[in-house]
Amino acid sequence: MDRLKMNVGFLVFCTLAALVLHAQDDVPFMPADQFESKIDLAFKKRESSDPGTYTFSDGSQPKKTTDTPIAFLSINFTLLRAEGEVKVNVVNGRSERVTKVKVGSPMKLEVGFIEDVKNNGEGVEINLIFLNDLKKPIRRVTFKIGEDGSYFVNGEKRGKF
């Protein structure tokens, strides 16, 4: 009987998780005239206690450190006109919530070193899910950098790194 309860509980959990992830795809994109996104490309040194050693910044592949500055990508996001949005869930491409913040102030989304983004085999995806006062998703903005360096905002190609 306990095993049956565990299996039913697991089935319910998996069903709810699938519904939440599917609901994220049903949320409409925010119109481009309601937000502003600007690329912030800076040159930074990859931090390490010992130059020439490897670090695991994203847990996938070792990254060689260097004393030479390399391109680091951030996206500055500003909501120009709110229409009922109260909070923002920042979700990565693996559907893991990174943070949740109140709407109102500009956000700086740190993507990472361009070299890492292009070499990880997947690219990077950042989803901003806007919630109303009832915590219901009402709009979203998606930033994606493909493994070839192509940059997309809400599915529209904006450039290439």
Could you name the key traits of this structure?
Immunoglobulin-like; 161 residues; single chain; 2 helices; alpha+beta
Describe the structure.
- By secondary structure, this protein is α+β, with helices and mostly antiparallel strands.
- The longest helix is centred in the first third of the chain and has 25 residues.
- About 13% of the residues have low confidence.
- The strands form 3 sheets. It has a 6-stranded antiparallel sheet with strand order 6-5-8-9-10-11, with no helix packed on it.
- It has one domain: Immunoglobulins (Immunoglobulin-like).
Topology:
Layout: H1 2-26, E1 35-44, E2 54-55, E3 63-64, E4 70-79, E5 87-92, E6 97-102, E7 107-113, H2 114-119, E8 124-131, E9 137-145, E10 150-153, E11 156-160
Antiparallel strand pairs: 1-4, 2-3, 4-7, 5-6, 5-8, 8-9, 9-10, 10-11
